[in-house]
Design a protein that fits this description.
Radius of gyration of chain A: 18 Å
Distance between the termini of chain A: 56 Å
Number of strands of chain A: 0
CATH class of the largest domain in chain B: Mainly Alpha
Helix content of chain B: over 70%
Number of domains of chain B: 2
Radius of gyration of chain B: 21 Å
Order of helices and strands of chain A: HHHH
Structural class of chain A: mainly alpha
Oligomer: heterodimer
Largest interface: A-B, 80 and 93 residues
Shape of chain A: elongated
Order of helices and strands of chain B: HHHHHH
Largest sheet of chain B: none
CATH topology of the largest domain in chain B: Four Helix Bundle (Hemerythrin (Met), subunit A)
Strand content of chain A: under 5%
Shape of chain B: globular
Structural class of chain B: mainly alpha
CATH superfamily of the largest domain in chain B: NADH-ubiquinone/plastoquinone oxidoreductase chain 6, subunit NuoJ
CATH architecture of the largest domain in chain B: Up-down Bundle
């Protein structure tokens, strides 16, 4: 494991930032272009993961373990969020027989 | 040779993330998302964050993705009720995403912190080090997250319970 990391030491921090920006943007595009509620949820998970990886990379860069602890908390929060969100989706499906988010537009008023 | 591993895995995860968004079938989306999370686990291993790699593997790929797959199979979606946005909205969404990534990368280029990533302390992401951090300064948030998980569990059970018709 150590020798593997010794080989990894050349990657610039910039490339981690670019990579995470691209993954985050893919998540944003997924939220904007899909109407299936579950796929929108998965796109949100992609965004959360991009931020997690960036936090871990900066934690290594600054030699500070707090960043990795934050990632741990974000994972716990994501688990709670997914449980509640999926139960809401199940309830919506039970009432409307669809998971199209445009069915929910009557929540506006 | 070593840095090429990062670029290879990064290319793979960008490809799988694109497939998550653009796959027609939601089941395929979930499977591609599992592959994306696996590549993220490889990224954590490359950063020598072994605790995060294991947690990502177990919690994300093991628990959350199985929950997604389970709900998707429970919902019994057919082809005809698969919703689709109009082509105009899709093009607008993709253009908006392209603008976002161009803005992000362009603004970060002007900062230019392109120093290579160096691991000063090899035991940074190991369980021992993170455990001392988690049960030291982060004790209160750690205990509060247990409350969060408990309330999420109660909320999920309460939401999905069938409402009884109170006729009497």
């Amino acid at each position: 494991m150590d020798s593997l990391f010794q080989n990894m030491q050349g990657v610039p921090l910039d490339h981690y930032i670019w990579f995470c920006a691209i993954i985050f943007t893919i998540g944003v595009v997924g939220v904007l272009t899909r109407r299936n509620a579950i796929v929108i949820f998965m796109s949100v998970e992609l965004m959360l993961n991009a931020v997690n990886l960036l936090l871990a990379a900066f934690s290594v860069h600054h030699n500070d373990p707090s960043g990795q602890v934050f990632v741990f908390f974000i994972m716990a929060l994501a688990a709670a969020e997914v449980a509640v969100g999926l139960s809401i989706i199940v309830m919506v499906y039970r009432n409307t027989q669809s998971i199209d988010i445009n069915v929910l537009n009557r929540l506006k008023w | 040779m070593g840095t090429s591993v990062f670029y290879f895995v990064a290319t793979l995860s960008i490809f799988f993330a694109l497939m998550v968004v653009f796959a027609k079938n939601p089941i395929h989306s979930v499977l591609y998302l599992i592959l994306t999370f696996f590549t993220f686990t490889v990224h954590y291993v490359l950063l020598n964050a072994q605790f995060l790699a294991v947690v990502n593997f177990i919690v994300y790929m093991g628990a959350i993705m199985v929950l997604f797959l389970f709900v998707l199979m429970l919902l019994n979606l057919n082809k005809e009720n698969e919703p689709n946005k109009t082509a105009l909205l899709k093009v607008v969404g993709i253009i908006a995403g392209g603008c976002l990534v161009v803005t992000l990368i362009g603004s970060l280029k002007s900062v230019s912190i392109s120093s290579p990533l160096l691991l000063k302390n090899p035991s940074l992401g190991l369980v021992e080090n993170l455990g001392k951090e988690l049960f030291g300064p982060f004790m209160l948030p750690f205990e509060l997250s247990s409350l969060l998980l408990l309330s999420a569990m109660v909320g999920a059970v309460l939401l999905t319970k069938k409402e009884e018709k109170n006729n009497g």
